Amino acid sequence: MKVAIYCRLSEEDRDKKFETDDSNSIQNQKSMLLQYSAEQGWEVYNIYSDDDYAGSDRRRPEFNRLLKDAEQRRFDVVLCKTQSRFTRELELVEKYIHGLFPLWGIRFVSIVDNADTANKGNKKSRQINGLVNEWYLEDMSENIKSVLTNRRQNGYHIGAFALYGYAKDPDQKGHLIIDEEAAAVVREVFVMFSQGYGKTAIARSLNDRGIPNPTEYKRRKGLRYKSPETRNSTLWKYFSISDMLTNEIYIGNMVQGKYGSVSYKTKQNKPRPRSEWIVVEGTHEPIIDRALWDRVQALIAQKAKPFTNGKIGLFARKARCANCGYVMRSSKCHGEQRYLQCPEHHVAKDACEGAFISVKKLESIVLAELKKLMAEYLDKDEVARSLEFRNNVQEQKAQQSSNIASYQKKIEELSKGIRELYLDKVRGIINEADYVEMSEKFATERSSFEQMVVAAEKRIAELDKRLANGDNRLEIVERYMNLEHLNREIVELLIDYISVGKRIPGTRDVPVEIHWNF
């Protein structure tokens, strides 16, 4: 009789001198099983040993190697210390111990709990052992989950490793402290993005200077950080920058529970909806201040695409056609000169009159208007008389509310249209193909108006915030009184949007209306 010995340990191994050594507990299991095999007169075919693996983990390498060898009938007996060493899942007990092993002519024996498939009388006890082990797994999983959830809700960090930019506080378990070396890189990433650099351009800049990415940084710090080995694993990538720019942990909020296990029987995780994340504010010192964070989130929301040089256009997502309201697109002609034009002008004949202006000219208009504001508002005694700040903001709120009412009316009309289309299909007035095509078109339009409602509501919230903060025009104008050129950061801070009209015939003048953020 040839016997396959299987050993497993799930606890964290603290008895090893070297990582390749088996722990004392595994060694004890081997000694016991080898002695039992000798007493039975069995020849040991192989010893399969999984260290640091749970009994519910189906990805155990030696466990799966044993099953492959069993299927090829390379031995006659599988020997374990207990049935739970082989598996804690009742499903696998039935599949292998009571199902496939008998078909393959393999006997299963566990010493401590007297499980032996050669003894037909103890099948029920094996099944009961399997059921008890299953309950143990489920109860243990729920207990652990409850403890972890409680710690998360109390703002404790429970991950194995701190987020890049932070380190675990050696004096307070579950608390994060700033790792200044990495935090400097995090600050640089946020500042570069706020200045108009794209995510890929930022990654390229870090790579060109040899700055290790978060994974490599952890390795260099001596942390036992495990991740799949990939080519260029030391390099920064687009997604590393993207994830960093939206992680609230950098503003002092503990964000956890983004992923949840599918089942206690597997280590697979799936993303959770944002509503289920556990967020606790102010648990640790922030790396990024709130003003910079808000500016970066606003840029991300605009989804402005960078040019080939990695920088976002000066007026990206800011310039709009005065005729149709569409965001103007950037194009390059006459060497390096860039122009902004309405995308609707070329879509269809007479779709739009078409707005067109060079970036350089628009920059000069904005600077001139800013200097004009400076001249008007530097006399503090004239501020109260010349600025109709509150009335202006209230007018903007009224306009946005009017827009929302108009959008909602359109949404109701489109919803009604979809319902009527369905009735027409039921009555046989239109066929299935026409119904699908037309209803999809209506649904797309409705979705666009719904997004417009969200944007208008967000704008009203911003206006309310400005009303609460009061009139800050003078402060902003004085701060930027000597500007010679604009950059993306300044445009983002000062300008809400710019309305650009069609060039006045017979002149070189282009009507421009600037909507300031102040």
Radius of gyration: 34 Å
In total, how many beta strands? 17
Low-pLDDT runs of 5+ residues are 228-232, 383-387
User: What is the helix content?
Assistant: 40-55%
Q: End-to-end span in angstroms? A: 87 Å
Q: Report the sheet-strand fraction.
A: 5-15%
The coarse silhouette is elongated
Nearest-integer average pLDDT: 79
Return the structural class: alpha/beta
Q: What's the tally of helices?
A: 16
Major β-sheet profile = 5 strands, mixed
Strand order in the largest sheet: 2-1-3-4-5
Would you kindly provide a written description of the structure presented here, covering whatever features stand out?
By secondary structure, the protein is an alpha/beta fold. Helices cover 48% and strands 14% of the residues. It contains 16 helices and 17 strands. The strands form 6 sheets. A 5-stranded mixed sheet has the order 2-1-3-4-5, sandwiched between helices. It has a 3-stranded mixed sheet with strand order 12-16-17. Helix 7 (199-208) packs across helix 9, helix 11 (359-377) packs across helix 15 and helix 13 packs antiparallel against helix 14 (432-469). The radius of gyration is 34 Å and the shape is elongated. The termini are far apart.
What are the main properties of this structure?
518 residues; alpha/beta; three-stranded mixed sheet; 48% helix; elongated
In short:
By secondary structure, the chain is an alpha/beta fold.
